[in-house]
Amino acid sequence: MAFMIDPRVAELLGHDAHLPAVDPQRFTRASLVQRFQQPPVWQPDVEVEKWYRAPDPVPASVLVPLVMRGEPSVLLTQRTTHLKKHAGQISFPGGRSEPSDPDAVATALREAQEEVGLAPSRVDVLGTLPTYTTGTGFVVTPVVGLIEPGAQELERLQLQADPSEVDEIFEVPLHFLMDPRYHQRRAFDVSGTRLEFFSMPWTSQATDKEYFIWGATAAMLRNLYRFLSA
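Above: the chain's sequence. Below: its structure in token form.
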């Protein structure tokens, strides 16, 4: 069941400034590889959206692409406004599983290639995070992978968005997303039920455009924060 809301006007409950940011030393390739090879004991903050009502959940995957620049970043997309689900929202490349996909990783890599033109060979898959069930009925497996930018990709990766699904491809500094000072807790009421969600609004210094990251994408980033900070 989907709700038409503007998350920007939802009640702001507060930030999580009391939590520590992830140490930037954990953003190196060696540290990230070790973290996935030897995962700590940890607990995700959100695994199922409270407004989940779908009787037949659909398996899906997203790629959480960490671009290994001098300052690592996370590659995200802004979806087109005409889509039936999650229109206009900030998201990871990804989508529903197909019968031809051997596993969740294959789904994420295929979808990333279809949506943003990212060749699977460019992704060094580290592993997966716990599934996240959306209110629209998708059981999403986040697949975390590293991407090394080429010599001609100092400012942005040379990708090609599928115009039928993706309006824009952009990157957000990993240190920003892994700092709870910028994790907003918000809430709105639906039929007397109070529903809370995370948001992580980020403004590009280059364009001064705000990207309002919220919902499933923000929740999965929050779970990545918990995983890297544990």
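Residues 215-229 form the longest helix (15 residues).
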